[in-house]
Amino acid sequence: MTKAIIFDFGNVLCSFSVAKFFENLAQRSRCTVKELHDLLPEISRIAIEYETGLIASDQFYRQITDLTRMEISREEFIKAYVDIFAPIDATLDLIRRLKPHYRLGLLSNTNEWHFEHSIKPVSVFPLFDAVSLSYVVGAMKPKAAIYHDMLNKLGVEAGACVYIDDLPENVEAAARLGMDAIVYTDHAALLRDLHSRRINTNE
Predict the structure, then answer these.
(1) pLDDT tens, 11-43?
(2) Which of 155, 98, 157, 167 is nearest to 130 (CA)?
(3) Do the bridges between strand 161-165 and strand 4-7 make them parallel or antiparallel, or are there none, so unpaired?
(4) In this predicted structure, what is the pLDDT of residue 30?
(5) CATH number for the domain whose boundaries are 4-15+86-196
(6) What is the Cα–Cα distance from 141 to 105, expressed in whole angstroms?
(7) What are the extents of the domains in the chain?
(8) How far apart are CA 105 and CA 125, in angstroms?
(9) DSSP state letter for 188
(10) How many angstroms separate the CA atoms of 130 and 30, rounded?
């Protein structure tokens, strides 16, 4: 019997665009969008350190601005960095309908600024019973530690959880721990997957 439903954030609750981030940076940098793409491996390395909690927000800001030769205030950098998300309204509505029947969890590879400026302000955020964030836990999906953190917070066995994520490797990791895991592709497919599991979506 399903007792809890756990959601990924990016491309499940909100879509996001890395291209928009590069465009935002290029407008404020001496680098072109192409040059920023060429720097992607180093930018990604720094971003992973940030999302794993290995560096703080101010260190992230300094390392990225030094790398890209960017002259930008901390406040403007934050705005450029977080202005990449758009809500997926169908998922938000689904969460509201699921709330009366299940415990809800949010499990995200993220960082302090995305959490504070993009995740917490989402309208359904207060509906989650548990939140596990990679930069707080010190581990990113598909590492088992972040899934265990969520299960401990929910107080629910893995076998009683449905997990939803757009990345197959994260779904596979959840399944290895015993969760009933679903790859998110679009809302219609998600509803079919939930209905096949007799999840009450009030539809």
Answers:
(1) 999 999 888 888 877 887 777 878 888 888 999
(2) 155
(3) parallel
(4) 78
(5) 3.40.50.1000
(6) 15
(7) 4-15+86-196, 18-82
(8) 10
(9) H
(10) 42
In this structure, which topology does domain 18-82 adopt according to CATH? DNA polymerase; domain 1 (1.10.150)
Report d(CA 155, CA 43) in Å as an integer: 37
Alpha-carbon gap, residue 115 to 117, rounded angstroms: 6
**Counts of helices then strands in the chain (DSSP H, E):** 11, 7
pTM of the model: 0.94
SS3 of 106, please? strand
Q: Crossing angle, helix 18-26 and helix 74-82, to 10 degrees? A: 150
Q: Residue 58 is encoded by which pair of tokens?
A: 């101010």
Q: Which secondary-structure segment (H or E) carries 105?
A: strand 103-108
* CA atoms of 78 and 72, how far apart (whole Å): 10
DSSP-derived 3-state class of residue 164: strand
Exposure string over 140-173, b if 16+ CB within 10 A, otherwise e: bbbeeebbebbbebbebebebbbbbbbbeebbeb
